[in-house]
Amino acid sequence: MGQHGPRPGPQASRQPSSRQAALRGGVLGAGSESEEVGKSGPGSPPVGLLPCLDSACSCPGSLPVVPAPGGCKEGTGSAFTCPARVAQSDHGCAMRTALVHHEDMTAARLLWEDPECEIERPERLTTALERLRQWGLEQRCLQLAAREASEAELGLVHSPEYVSLVRGTQTLSTRELQALSGQYDAVYFHPSTFHCARLAVGAALQLVDAVLTGAVHNGLALVRPPGHHSQRAAANGFCVFNNVAIAAKYAKQRHGLHRILIVDWDVHHGQGIQYIFEDDPSVLYFSWHRYEHGHFWPYLRESDADAVGQGQGRGFTVNLPWNQVGMGNADYVAAFLHVLLPVAFEFDPELVLISAGFDSAIGDPEGQMRATPQCFSHLTQLLQVLAGGRVCAVLEGGYHLESLSQSVCMVAKALLGDPALPLSGPMEPHHSALESIQSVRAAQAPHWKSLRQQGSTPILNPSTYSLERRASPVSPGGPKFKAAEAQASAALSSLLDQLHLNPTLPVRTAVALTALDAALVLPADVLRKEGSAPQEETRAWARLHEALAQDKALTALGKVLHLLNGILDGQVSSGIAATPEPALAPTLDVVIRRSLSHGARRLLCVAVGQLDRPTDLADDGRNLWLNIRGKEAAAPSKFQVSVPLPGTTGGFVSCVLALVLPLAYGFQPDLVLVALGPAHGLQVPQATLLASLLRGPAGGRVLVLLEQGSTSQLAGVLARVLQGEAPPGLGPFSMASPEDTQALIYLRGQLEAEWKMLQVAAPQVP
Ligand SMILES: [Zn+2]
After folding, report:
1. For 42, which of 148, 623, 643, 678 is 20 to 30 Å away at the CA?
2. What is the pTM of this model?
3. Any idea what DSSP says for residue 731?
4. Structure confidence by residue, pLDDT tens digits, 18-62
5. Distance between CA atoms of residues 504 and 149, nearest Å
6. How far is it, in rounded angstroms, from Cα 339 to Cα 332?
7. Rounded to whole angstroms, how far apart are CA atoms 460 and 306?
8. Annotated catalytic, 229?
9. Hey, how many other C-beta atoms are within 10 angstroms of the C-beta on 111?
10. 332/371 Cα distance (integer angstroms)
11. For residue 479, how far is its CA from the centre of ligand 1 (angstroms)?
């Protein structure tokens, strides 16, 4: 979207009455479709959907399916098998991720000269799809052909007059289209715009249906035009209908949801979504955006951190304005860990919708940010621990074709459960990013216990808005612009190298268990490692500890080493191993030494329970020891950190988000060991949340070490989580105790000079 000021026109008018009307429900479209969405008599499908074509299916309506090449053959044996039923079939070929698109969405294009609008072109979709195909990702998804949204569905958000105006554009001449477009800010109409925009909304709704009926776990809708700027009665910023906002309303009305999280990581503020939900506490809207103290489009006062929603909706709008360009991976991850995720866990959404714009990625001329495509895998993974993994990503912006398509692929890979590629570059947030994080935490603290408790920082310049307009800091064609382009192309080609070096492994997770085997239920694609390391090797390691001489311990050690070797050699991504209880600490000691002497450059060990760091381990920066619920350490040091296990869900979430993950992302390990030792005290949801989130920092290389006395249930859930499934919910949110909060604040104070990812506020300039 453009760099110039808003033109006068319909976009300037906001109509608060729309909210009330929409909230009352039954917002009507024109003509025969004027019925309430989602309400229908018994036996008849909801409006806008045909009855399911699959006679054996009882889903609420049809979800047209494009048979996936190389996908499930048995499931589509009849003329039509509803994806809802494919997922429930027992032949093990259900797909976890839906990909919704329709080639008609490439039809709309700019018919006249307009430098501001020319970047929103059909190649955005074709390139992204082509790349998904090339990388073998499209074939792994359940492919759904987008349907057109009905006018009643558009009416969930838009006024009948506006819908009818857009419908009317189908027959306008080019000159008339241009004149109408000029009434809005950064918008162009084409005779196929109405069809494309209805498909874009329909795609989002279909994705919501597929996820909420359980046909798939998650999905991605590749759509044009984007939606997040569009308002009740106005197109804006390339957006015609508000795809994601309509999807949220639809999920509430059609599927009866009560709490929906919208994460808008597009580089522009989705003011359209904000206006639609600003007084609605059932939809939590998070947006980060290039803001530059109000100097960046759409130049709105209400994009700042202190715009938190209105009335009942106060605290349910979370704006994180970026006041400088150049924000990168560390800034984005820090924003998730210190702002979005604490609030999201407390909110406890039933569905996560992503306004997935990729103009926030490196190389994009609009955003001028530096986050690499890999970062979007991490962001997606971080969101997949919410809402039971029900995540729907809907494309918004993204104008650098290579950056856009690589980022789309990274999101698709994360949705499919592939480990994220490790993040490169220094993990140190910018000073300006920390100022933004501090501002939004301060503005939101009155509304969210989890932010209040992590140590209150004074509000920083509550209003940073300035009306004075400024030229873009990097003008196209200038030397800075060329340098940024070169940096982007280097980053994008390095992703290809990284993919080459870290191919998706055929075996994602393996287990090496002995005593647990009988009752253990494992996902079909988890490998049971039956082998052992060579006896000589096992015995040599066992000599280090008396406890390992015993037969059972020795057998377990052989299996653990065999699994570890598989991970270190790159045959397996992650694993779970068990050992008899007295042998756990010595086995962990061997695993640490073996890892460091065999390829791991940096090893993070998260030891939970009564476990001691091996005393003679070199303090050379290659290993970071983090003990939860162990002995109280005399004083924390950079590579040895100890923290009590919090007694509440809120305390546990804070510990993971504010301490464990910042340390892990800052350390950039290439292997993570999670050891659940004696008296670890973690419940299954806590242990699996920890393991799930620790997949990120080391590119999926995680080895979990358990006691053989652990339940088979724990091992089974851990295996699914390491495969990329969502961990079970933690249960109701309860506040962290003052002691647990104090412990975290103390550790942050001690460690943040060394570990910059721990910071939640900008350091004071002396
Ligand atoms: Zn954008």
Report:
1. 148
2. 0.89
3. -
4. 323 322 222 222 233 333 444 333 333 333 343 444 445 554 444
5. 36
6. 10
7. 10
8. yes
9. 15
10. 8
11. 24
